[in-house]
C-alpha cells in the first residue's frame, strides 16, 4: 500500500520464510475496510460550536464544542494564529486481531516463522480457548495500523487541520515479549497492581453500563466496559466470549500505543495533538469491519450482543481473524482567512 508499510512487511518477510497458511485469508481486505467506513460515525462535525450534521451519538460529549474561536501559537510572525474551532471523528486507525500469528488479513497474506530467531518471542500464538479449572481464556495477536484516508476532507477544511499519516504498520505484538507474558508485563507495568483487586474491578460495572448506552467513562481508564479489565496489557483475555475478548484486545492495543508515545490525542487541544500516557477513552469509537461489517460504531467495551451476532462466520480462512476500525475525535483551530 504505502512505502513504509511495505518496507516493514518486507523486513519481517526477510526474517521469516514465507509459507502458505490456509487459516489466513488470501485476499486483501483493504477495499472492504474502505467500503465499511461508517460515515455517520465521522459526525457530528462542529464548526464554531455549531453542529453541521447530527451523526452518531457515541461518545458525543460536547466538553469543548461550546468554544467558537481559538488562538494558537506559531513559530513565525505574528506568532499566533486566530481561527474558529472544528471537531469531527475521522477514521484514523485499524486493528487486526488475529488468532494466527503474523497473519495480515488487510493485505491478504501471512508470514510463517519457519523456525526463525523470533520464534522465542511468539509464545502460544493464536486463539487459545483452553480451560484451567473453571477459567476460560483467549490469546491473540494484534497489529495496529494508521489508516487515514480522509485527506480530501482535510484539504477542504484547513492545511493545519490535516493529518500527515497514511497506511502504516506501527504496532506488531508478535515481536513484543511483554505481549506474550502476563507476569513479565505486570513487572514492567507496576500500576497494574493498583487495579488487581475487587474494589477497582467493581467500578468497571459503571463503565460497562455507560459503554452500552454509548459513552465511555474515561476516569475509569483501567476498565474496557463489558470487555473486562485493561490490565495486564497482554494478548491474554480471561473471557469465554471470543468477540468480547477481541474488543478488549483492541482497547489494550490503543492504550499501549498511547503509553509508548506512538500515537497522540488529537482532541485535547485545538492547536496540537498531545501525547497522553493515559488514554482518554471517550475520544474513540470502534467498529468491527471485517470479515463482516457491523455498519455502525460503538463505545469501547459495549456488549457484543449489540454488535457481535454473525460477525465471526465459520469460514476457515476468516474465522477468528478480525479487523476493527477506530474513529478518533479530532479538534482543530481552522484559520478563517
Characterize the structure shown.
By secondary structure, this protein is an alpha+beta fold. The chain has one domain (3-335). It has helices spanning 3-15, 30-36, 39-42, 151-157, 177-180, 182-188, 198-202, 204-212, 242-259, 304-307; strands spanning 46-47, 50-51, 69-73, 80-88, 91-98, 103-104, 109-110, 130-132, 135-139, 141-146, 169-172, 236-237, 284-290, 321-328, 330-335. Strands 1, 2, 3, 4 and 15 form a five-stranded antiparallel sheet that branches. A five-stranded antiparallel sheet has the order 11-10-5-14-13, sandwiched between helices. Strands 8-9-12 form a three-stranded antiparallel sheet, covered by helices on one side. β6 (103-104) and β7 (109-110) form a beta hairpin. The longest helix has 18 residues, at 242-259. Mean pLDDT is 84; it is low at 12-22 and 129-133.
